[in-house]
Amino acid sequence: MEATIRINTDMLGTDFLNGIKEMFPHKTVEITIQSADATDYILSNPAYAQELQERIAEYDKKQETITLKANELL
């Protein structure tokens, strides 16, 4: 069994550890911790990184800001 858990470090506590113990009783587990920054994920894929760079360049050319009022978000 394999599990990927995405959790804010503010939520880490004994309940988290006990949950892991329940998921993998009496097993040796390997735990890898890395930042889940979306930017790192995007930049790790060349196609996504290119798309991001193009969108930034397009934004820089236009220098437009989209402004919405709260009632326009619904």
List the helices and strands and how they pair.
Blueprint: H1 14-23, H2 38-44, H3 46-62
Q: Rg from C-alpha positions? A: 20 Å
**Shape verdict:** elongated
Strand content: under 5%
Structural class: mainly alpha
Average pLDDT: 82
**Please, how many domains?**
1
Number of E-state strands: 0
Offer a quick outline of the entry:
The chain is 46% helix and 0% strand. The protein is mostly helical.
Task: Describe this protein's structure.
There is one protein chain. The protein is mainly α and 74 residues long. The protein has one domain. 46% of the residues lie in helices and 0% in strands. The chain is built from 3 helices and no strands. The longest helix is centred in the last third of the chain and has 17 residues. It is elongated, with a radius of gyration of 20 Å.
Can you give keywords for this protein?
74 residues, 0% strand, 3 helices
